């Protein structure tokens, strides 16, 4: 085992991510063995639909967790984005392109809101994101008069946005998601913004005393998160069409689970985008597998809960060992 | 000295990339004070961590009271009778002295905690140690020195047979150190084995019976303290004779321009109406007892804490400094006494920490120019002689002195002209200390201006061109090095206002 760990290739990719990949493949194999319905492209496409929007949520929250913060508003904000922009599209006749932009804008504004209070007013992220979760839910309900919103089908006049997800059987969504993941990875690891976001997650005071405007960079993490959540909303409706006000909380846990499983530390300062991507695929596959095996969605909640605990525990243990 | 109570034989320990302990031997006898010395990174702390079960050894054996032992955590070591008194105190400020001492093993009366019994037991302990502390006092009301006494009492209450003092005197005043030594002599009389880790050569001569020296993770040798000189020990530690010559007169020309002028600075209770000037190329020593307000003054100048009044002029121009960002823009760099909290970002590499304050010089388009970053960081690793396997090493893996150098590199790369060094050599061994001294002299010669806050009188007298003395938040004196002496400074530092 030690020998494997010292291998340069393994070191570069990270043992954690290799293990996750193996878990992913094993999970798929097990699901295929348990249910012959699972074999085939259809299921994979369906799991991918789930992975796209969840992936954007997870990428977003990775930035926030990297600062040592947390955001429990991402799921409801995604729904809020989808509802407000969808209502604009269907009830006010706003052109599709602008509706999509509104979706991103709503997410962005929630990011600004959360980030401002966390960074400039030093409100604990836990509190502010709980509050904005309720605001997002309430706002969406008020805006849509508690009606659910159905986005256009692919055959409809405004249905072309669905090709963000697939054209025929080609998974366009996967390509877009991976491109965004690469961009996020570059942002986090090769730019000043990412450097400061990770550093202040590790030791905020030391970064402040280096003459860095930590407020600005901390807020930026939330803004990046919010924007990605706005994009997630587009991928959600492109896959599932209808959005109901008042929901979205369960995706918080799934997104955070994907992120933490991938090796991002809840204590801040350490984050891995590639880990997050694999983590998201695992959660999406799990969800698809549980449905395919005929269990209800509730089991997935239980399993995601357990995953969060295990992943966070693993993080705590590795950190303790390092100290 | 009595029988051997503890033997560590051929202890070997490696971390990825570092051979931290290379077959080290160490023994403690009953009723002796055994000093463990070595430069930062020599492996002293690692050895003690292996002993108390924080680290697992790769090979070798620990024999305690005639039996081979292996502890898996500090609790097990404690139960066996081996206790560490840490440099950083692990006390809960809001609890009483007695509650702190018996934390985790409180006396109970039914399900209620029996505070009365704990107070009595604590009082008995203090009596045994001849310490004058009220067990019902809230911990945060005590001075650092008294808190340390409580920590020692706590160790004793564990029926300790071996007590390890990890730099106990670092935060103490002279009189508190005297008191500490009295206690240690007492413990020695009671036939306890005592390990004393310190960087202060004078103390070693005063308090210890034997000295074991380590270097680069290896065992160098053990001497009887009475039979060796300071230089013997230092030579074993570093293999060369050290220390810059002390200054006898200011090296600053009379007509050197004033680069920093502070007027009537106020910031809370700890900084009251402080005014002084700093000249180009000068090392201005800030002396005083702990809690005199020196660090607070520095932090207020640097914008780390809010100030309530006063003016700051840089090169004759009035500047507004409200945040560290403003200060850095004005060319001020601050090196904190507590580098772990305020200096370094542990999960980042040497290179990343070095460029933390000057990122904008390492940006190419949208991206960080890592090649340039590594190159510049490497230059400073070489010029400051920082011991690290490479610039991509995480700073968490470096020893204290080397971490300090990384922080210094951070400000040098930022090209700051005014440097505030707050206890720059705290917790740093003689070898590294002298390197820092040399570095400070070199920087001053190059025209940088340095404010050096130090609690070590010898350091103040060795390094400063001029000395400002503070007491209880006020400036109580200012004196040129040519006229300064320990007595004069001490007098100023304790003057009633």
Would you kindly provide a written description of the structure presented here, covering whatever features stand out?
The complex is a heterodimer of chains A (323) and B (497). Chain A contains 13 helices and two strands. Chain A is mainly alpha-helical. In chain A, helix 4 packs parallel to helix 8, helix 4 packs across helix 12 and helix 11 crosses helix 12. Chain B has 497 residues and is α/β, with parallel strands linked by helices. Chain B has two domains: 235 residues, Rossmann fold; 236 residues, Rossmann fold (3-Layer(aba) Sandwich), CATH 3.40.50.300. Helices cover 33% and strands 27% of the residues of chain B. In chain B, the strands form six sheets. A six-stranded mixed β-sheet of chain B has the order 6-9-10-3-11-12, with helices on both faces. In chain B, strands 18-21-22-15-23-24 form a six-stranded mixed β-sheet, sandwiched between helices. Chain B has a four-stranded antiparallel β-sheet with strand order 2-1-4-5, with helices on one face. In chain B, helix 4 packs across helix 5. At the A-B interface, helix 9 of A face helix 10, helix 11 and strand 20 of B.
